[in-house]
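#structure-requests
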Amino acid sequence: MAANSVSTPVPVAWYPTLAVAMVSVGLMLTASFFIYEATSSRKSRSLAKEITTGAAASVVLGFGSLFVLLASGVYV
């Protein structure tokens, strides 16, 4: 019985584009988070906004890092 090959859900040609796009969006979200922290006073900060922005930046940068590795030939 022959084994089935594993295929990627995303075409390999899209890896560099996805890497650049996701890392760029992640860095913009990170910058937005730092600007929010630096410009708002302690009393006017929202914990929900901080967690949402931080989590979104973390997830997008995580997937961006994955696609950077995949685009460079490091298959994880």
